[in-house]
Design goal:
single chain; alpha/beta; globular; binds 5'-O-[(R)-(carboxyoxy)(hydroxy)phosphoryl]adenosine; binds zinc ion
Length: 354
């Protein structure tokens, strides 16, 4: 089985060809970071226009690089949501047209499910497992029981972890996207110099909160000399924020692991998977590695290039759905919101897109 996948839900335009031997046959990706940088964040209209300008070419290049013809495809998948709706429409319409023209099934993939299933593409992880999904728009802990079967154990009550990185990085005068810039700036910094809070740590449940950390970062900045930060102040503050985020994520994950162990739902061996753009962060990976080692859990983190948005994960999720006959009609409507666990209680606040 060979599936083409398209990703256009945020600021990455991407196409990939994946087969059922877990092989990524081709991948093309265009990051729009330069186009959005002057605005300090993703501008939806600029993103949609850029997807439209580049997607056809990226699809053609991926198909050529894979050494196949469109007629060889068994399905065409696109992110059908959640995401910036203009971009999602571009990907969905392109995939529908390709599916119609080639007479193959169309697969509307939930972007979060694509992140969730990536570890099955990279490491053939069996169900069930615990997933920490940490990206710019999402911060959730999910029990993954099968394709389409998710139970949300925790989510953020305000910002997502990636959003916290992006916003604190912006306050420190770092570029967009903030996460990678902050990680670079933190190298050699002293994370203990500034006392920053660990919101929610030690509290019952598995929910997250990051707005207090954002406020505390602003307050620290107000105590420092005005103007650009010195290299030392920048490194120490960035390291402090990074450690605080990693501590919060590890604490909430520890609680979710205990819940999974109690319910006998943790898998054999019990497995923690991390996914989403923030999963590229080395400090977080180290914290989760230590957490799993201490509890006898397997820890799986896909390579950074498959943690941030990409089309291979969309093609793979489409392939998993195709194998189960879960194809979609051509009148599928792009979805700005699309929770993985529709039964989970609603949470109010920014960043809560599911
Ligand atoms: O999954 P993703 O590419 O897009 C969304 O679906 O949101 O995640 C992007 C987010 C951004 O907030 C970015 O700052 C963050 O992931 N990110 C990182 C790192 N690389 C990307 N955060 C911390 N450290 C990194 N190395
Ligand atoms: Zn994503």
């Amino acid at each position: 089985m060979i599936v083409l996948g398209l990703e256009t839900s945020c600021d990455e335009t991407a196409a990939a060809v994946v087969d059922d031997g877990r092989r990524v046959r081709a991948q093309t990706l265009l990051s729009q970071h330069d186009a959005h940088r002057p605005y300090g964040g993703v501008v939806p209209e600029i993103a949609a226009r850029a997807h439209l300008d580049h997607l056809d070419r990226l699809v053609a290049e991926a198909v050529e690089e894979a050494g196949i013809r469109l007629a060889d495809l068994d399905g065409v998948a696109a992110t059908g949501g959640p995401g910036l709706i203009g971009g999602v429409i571009v990907g969905v319409m392109t995939a529908k047209a390709l599916a119609l023209a080639t007479g193959t099934p169309f697969l509307a993939v939930n972007h979060l499910e694509a992140h969730a299933l990536t570890a099955r593409l990279t490491d053939a992880v069996p169900f069930p497992y615990l997933l920490l999904l940490v990206s710019g728009g999402h911060c959730q802990l999910l029990a993954v029981r099968g394709v389409g079967q998710y139970r949300r154990l925790g989510t953020t009550v305000d910002d997502a972890a990636g959003e916290c990185f992006d916003k604190t990085a912006k306050m420190m005068g770092l570029g967009h996207p903030g996460g990678p810039a902050l990680e670079r700036a933190a190298k050699g910094g002293d994370p203990a110099r500034f006392a920053l809070p660990r919101p929610m740590v030690g509290r019952p449940g598995c929910d997250f909160s990051f707005s207090g950390l954002k406020t505390a970062t602003r307050q620290v900045l107000e105590t420092l000399p005005p103007g650009p930060l010195s290299d030392r102040d920048l490194a120490d503050l960035a390291a402090g924020v990074q450690d605080a985020v990693a501590d919060v994520l590890a604490d909430r994950t520890r609680r979710a692991m205990a819940l999974m162990e109690e319910s006998g739902d943790s898998g054999a061996p019990p497995t923690l998977v991390v996914a989403g753009g923030v999963a590229a962060n080395e400090t977080l990976r180290a914290a989760l590695t230590a957490l799993c080692a201490g509890r006898g859990w397997r820890f799986v983190a896909p390579p950074p290039g498959l943690c941030t948005d990409n089309a291979a994960m969309v093609a793979w999720a489409g392939l998993e759905r195709l194998r189960l006959g879960l194809t979609d009609p051509l009148d599928f409507k792009p979805r700005p919101r699309w929770p993985l666990d529709p039964d989970a209680p609603k949470r109010a606040g920014a960043g809560v897109k599911a």
